[in-house]
Design brief:
The chain is mostly beta strands. Helix content is 6%, strand content 49%. Strands 1, 2, 3, 4, 8 and 9 form a 6-stranded antiparallel β-sheet that branches. Strand 8 and strand 9 form a beta hairpin. The chain is globular. It starts with a strand and ends in a 7-residue tail after the last strand.
């Protein structure tokens, strides 16, 4: 599977700059077929074929600020995250927070087809 490029959702960035507390949220990684960064919206991959809507939960390992740099470390989900039964497609991996909504997007550049028996694994590299 190709490498994905990282991008932030604008509404979540605004919330963070206005004093949101990322360390107290719960998080999920979701797959999506479309997203709009400026609006903070996604079209999540359809339930079925090995993907379950709502994504996979990830937990906060640590959240700290030092010298003006905020670091949010999430626990890596067990890989593989999704195994296709009959197949599904996606283009984006989305990090969603319980308060912030859609926070970050990893864009694979084009639609990715996952055939039966194939897996999708995600290695988290955050901001």
């Amino acid at each position: 599977m190709p490498t994905a490029s990282y991008e932030k959702f604008q509404p979540a960035l605004e919330l963070m700059l206005e004093g949101g507390n990322l360390g107290t949220e719960t998080y999920a990684l979701k797959l999506a077929t479309a997203r709009t960064l400026s609006a903070g919206t996604i079209t999540e991959t359809t339930n079925g074929g090995g993907y379950t809507t709502g994504g996979v939960a990830v937990t906060v390992a640590s959240a700290a600020q030092s010298g003006g740099t905020y670091t949010l470390t999430l626990t890596q989900p067990t890989n593989p995250i999704w195994t296709a039964t009959t197949g599904f497609t996606f283009q984006y991996v989305i990090l969603t927070g319980s308060v912030s909504g859609n926070i970050a997007s990893w864009d694979y550049g084009s639609s990715q087809s996952v055939a039966a028996g194939e897996t999708v694994s995600v290695t988290l590299t955050l901001f």
